[in-house]
Amino acid sequence: MSDSTPQPPEALKIIYKSYQKASIDALAGDPDILDFSKDQQYIGHPKVRLGRKLDGAVLEKAFALFSGSNRGYYDAEPKELVSYEHDCVSDLANPKHKTNIHLHHVVPYDNLSTNLEGDVTGHGTSQDLSFFNIDPFSSLNLLPINPDIHKPLSIAQFLNRKLRWMTLGGQYDWTKKVYPTEVPPEFPKDVAALIRSIFPLLRPEAAIVNIYSPGDTLSIHRDVSESSDAGLVSISIGCDAIFIAGLEDPSSKEIKHAVVRLRSGDAVYMTGPSRFAWHGVPQILANTCPWWLSAWPAGIKVPEAALQEDSRFEAWRGWMANKRINLNVRQMTE
């Protein structure tokens, strides 16, 4: 689809800016923000209608396959908590999946682990393929492609602040605003299976993984580079975010919009007319990451736990505590 209206409506920009400047207390008390952790209060709400209900057994099976575990849900007060390490760690370590860092720096894939059983093209042990294997105080640097313009980055700078996005599958060209014509890297099978099990009408072909910190924003935009009008799926992990989406009524020019507080685990499915809606993230809310995720990539310390805790990523404990990771999945072609 070509974007005949490259600039968002002025009214929506004003709404976006108001939430960008809003305090935490103001956001908490704003009646216009939809918060689906309180889902019962939205029955009959003028801006919300029930789309469909997903059977809990279907979701549990999908999550079990994704995590590689047959464990069911935990009791309210578990005695043992297991921290799953998913291959998203190794997806970042795959040079076929480009990041914003690749534009100006050389990413040191050869230094990911001292005990690889293969290489970073996917033939090694997946648990070893991680930048979190490198000590945050390591002397290893990411060297600039042009040292006259950019400075080297330490591993801590790379993972803590400079890494902003990664592409999976179709490698979108952010300069030309197109998908390259060559055959893209394979989309991660486990992520695709999880998405298809919950959103069967979407064929996952490309994804953008955004990494946010408090203070970061996502400007209002529309996703129009795909030749398919299949829905977009956006999954939030970590800190809460304020999300705004809106459409302009072609007749009245009225802006119909919604403001949502997205929490960890929430999924936004933009389909039908909303597929090409304007949307953005004016604010990331600090210190809102769920407690059970805040230690990631290290495990959760539970005194009564019967399992020996994996200490490989201990030096990076708490990396996730003030991060929001957003997985935005789309279908490129019909």
What's the total count of β strands?
Answer: 12
Q: Low-confidence stretches at least 5 residues in length (pLDDT < 50)?
A: 72-87, 114-127
Helical content stands at: 10-25%
End-to-end CA span: 12 Å
Structural class: alpha+beta
Strand order within the widest sheet?
1-9-8-11-6
Radius of gyration: 21 Å
User: What's the mean pLDDT score?
Assistant: 83
Strand content: 15-25%
* Major sheet characteristics: 5 strands, mixed
Compressed to H and E, one letter per element, the order equals: HHEHHEEHEHEEEEEEEE
Q: Which outline best applies? A: globular
The tally of helices reads 6
Could you please describe the fold and organization of this structure?
- With 334 residues, the protein is of the alpha+beta class.
- The strands form three sheets. A five-stranded mixed β-sheet has the order 1-9-8-11-6, covered by helices on one side. Strands 4-5-12-7-10 form a five-stranded antiparallel β-sheet, with no helix packed on it. The protein has a two-stranded antiparallel ribbon with strand order 2-3.
- Helix 3 packs antiparallel against helix 6.
- The longest helix has 12 residues.
- The relative contact order is 0.18.
- About 9% of the residues have low confidence.
